[in-house]
Predict the structure.
Amino acid sequence: MKIKTTMKNTVFTLALLISVVTFSQDFKLYEKAVFTFENDTLNYRILKPLNYNPNKRYPVHLFLHGSGERGNDNSSQLTHGGKLFLKKENREKYNSWVIFPQCPINDRWPSLTTDSWDNNNDYFPNNNEINQPNKTLELVIKFMDQFIEKKQVNKQRIYISGLSMGGMGTFEMLHRRPDMFAAATPICGNGNAELSKLYATKVHLWIFHGSDDKTVKPEYSFKMAKAIISSGGSPRLTLYENVGHDSWNNAFAEKNFLKWIHSKTKKNSGF
């Protein structure tokens, strides 16, 4: 019996190692790069379109990670979502540029009214003032402003997704660049409700949250959806019952997640 148990454990360990190695090799398809503006730098990973043709124009999908993936290794930002875009069927059906920038540990995507992540308070300003963005988000904006001018980019099909801190960054990117994106999918996020009027009728939105999220309250997604509707928008809102903060797993598992995103263009106003 002891020998059998050892063999099972060995087989399991080998399978796990093979899985990890394969996963690591897949992530190598995301090229490591650094964007430099003046004296500041932004680490990012970029996945080129499948069978890339420099004479074609492709959609762009920007993905903002959560606070747990901050750092300077230019790898952690792929932890959640990175695998989704590598699936063979997704690359074939929804062929695009995919960009994962990384926020350093001493910064964050959204501009907050506090240095705390205290979930008992709504830490976003409720006013019409557009303040200076945090340094890393400003670099993302400058990078995107330049990247979408490439002749290999379809400017009518620029998309953004983000989870947790990245969901907050998604809402902030929308009010800072309301004319850039065709569709956005903020997951377990929050934002400045007053400024949603800047993009409410311009961007297709699908918002996700878990009903049992204790890290970022689901009420914040309801707040944002309500504000967008009040300004004439028609967002979709999906609330996952009995799901906590990691509602991104449920969102990525949605059969039509990427299909819905890629069906949107800035010229198409239908949902």
The mean pLDDT is 89. Strands lie at 30-37, 40-47, 58-64, 97-101, 153-163, 183-187, 204-210, 236-240.
